[in-house]
Write a structure and sequence with these properties.
This protein has 107 residues and is an alpha/beta fold. The protein is 33% helix and 19% strand. It has a domain of 58 residues: Rossmann fold, CATH 3.40.50.2300. The protein has a four-stranded parallel beta sheet with strand order 2-1-3-4, with helices on both faces. α4 links the parallel β3 and β4.
């Protein structure tokens, strides 16, 4: 029988991350590297994922403080991730896009 385990808190998984852990999701590896460098340099632990589907396995491993999402990604875009997380108060998400006028309200 498989027993449910709570995801590790950010500080348990990344003890050196005194400010907490941020999950950054983007299909552009350069953007992931830039975000990781900036956030780690500011004292945050950083998890990364390459697409929206990868987020859910990461959330089983560890509960990040916020989630930063790209809007346009393959397999599952950031807006669909927000729809699936909507109503789950365990997660705070921020969706970002480099294109103007791309962010409609999430139903």
């Amino acid at each position: 029988m498989h027993s449910y385990q709570e995801p590790k808190s950010p500080r348990e998984s990344h003890p050196s991350a005194s400010k907490g852990t941020i999950l950054v999701v983007d299909d552009n590896p350069d953007m992931l590297d830039i975000a990781k460098t900036i956030l780690e340099g500011s004292g945050y632990g950083v998890q990364t994922a390459n697409n929206g589907l990868d987020i859910f396995s990461r959330l089983e491993e560890q509960k990040p403080d916020p989630i930063i999402l790209d809007v346009m990604m393959p397999q599952m875009d950031g807006l669909e991730v927000l729809r699936q997380l909507k109503g789950n108060t365990d997660y705070y998400s921020l969706c970002q896009s480099s294109q103007r006028g791309l962010l409609p309200p999430v139903p």
